[in-house]
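YM 10:42: SRP54-type proteins GTP-binding domain-containing protein sequence, as discussed on the call
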Amino acid sequence: MIIEELKQIFSTFLAEVNLFLSKNFNEGLPIAEEIMTLILAGITLFLLLICLSGWFWQRSRSQKKKTLDKLSGREKEKRLEQLKKERDKELELRIKEEEKLRAEKESVQLVKAEQLEKGLQEQIVSMEEEHRSQQVLERDLKKTAETVESAEDADSFLVRLRKGVDKTRTQLLNNLSDAVLGKKEISEELLDDLEEVLIGSDIGPETTQRILEAITEKVERKELTNPQVLQTEIQREIQHIMSKTYSVPGTADRKPLILLFVGVNGVGKTTTIGKIAAQYRQQGKKVLMGAGDTFRAAAIEQLVEWSKRADCDITQKDAGSDPSAVMYETVKKGLDEDYDVVICDTAGRLHTKKNLMEELKKMVRVIRKLIPDAPHEVLLVLDATTGQNAIFQTREFMEAADLTGLIITKLDGSSKGGVVIGIVNEFDVPVRYIGVGEQVEDLRPFDAQQFTESLFA
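YM 10:58: structure's back
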């Protein structure tokens, strides 16, 4: 009975499916019973495969879960330890990257700090130089006005010169006396001692060698045997070195006479310019100054004060202006307004600063656009207290400008006056002036014989 009912249900279901498939896939024609059986078998197989796949997936997932659950405590610890190591390694890499970035930032900050410190140091040095220059100016402005040089003044200057080189003379003569003391003959040992004495007096190695060679020749010819006359021989050789003569340009054949002053900071350049301007004014010359040191406002102010004191005119611009423009305007005014002497100041510059030395060359070119053979004098101001460094400065400035003369200041405050001898010997550039004090009359034209005599007087 039940089997019959199932057959009936299956037949009815098969008829419905046949009707559905024939309408949708067979243009309304009934499908053969054998084909329908195959179709139903295929559908049944497909559904069976889907069920089996779902069951297999669910079973695999369950097995994995069971496997994880079955892991021993030690295996779990190993797994956790491995994960921890991986996290620690990643953290360490991040820390290293952060430290590297921090180090780079600190390096950049350090460079900026060093640059800032360098700038501050340069400002401090500049302020100290301005302060020293101002002190010198204040002392100079307290002095009385200069009078025209007389024979009495010349004698007075000789006294001041001897007093000014007293430290140099004392050191030189005392050391010479010690070297020859108790010596009965001129030996190699004595000549070595003399070499130390001369070099110690800042005469310089080249000039010392020249003096010793002359003495050695006389010793070899038996013309010189007594150690006690060595001082006289050294004086004679120094006089020979200092006997160079040079022509000095004047206002008679050049009008205006263009003087260009150069030198490093702190040598007394601006003060020297003021003193020389005052001396020309005492001679009745019409003098014009050019404030070419536009890097320091204090330098311009100092030169303005000197122009008032010396009763001469001045061309100036604001601090920071182009110094070559100041040179051009100064020389042009000197030509147009019939000045006798034009004195041009320049910025104090280190002889090792190539860019500033190039600027000096530019100023010379600008002056020569107006007067082809100018400047007629390029005067380098040197500080005697710097000793052998004055010779190094002379070499460097000779490369940047055609030096025609040297001015050596502060001989009164130094035991290194022997450097004057070395400079005269090594360079074919005359010493034009020497300074042995702060007053205007303490800066005088250089007399080689007078200077040598004052060293041994």
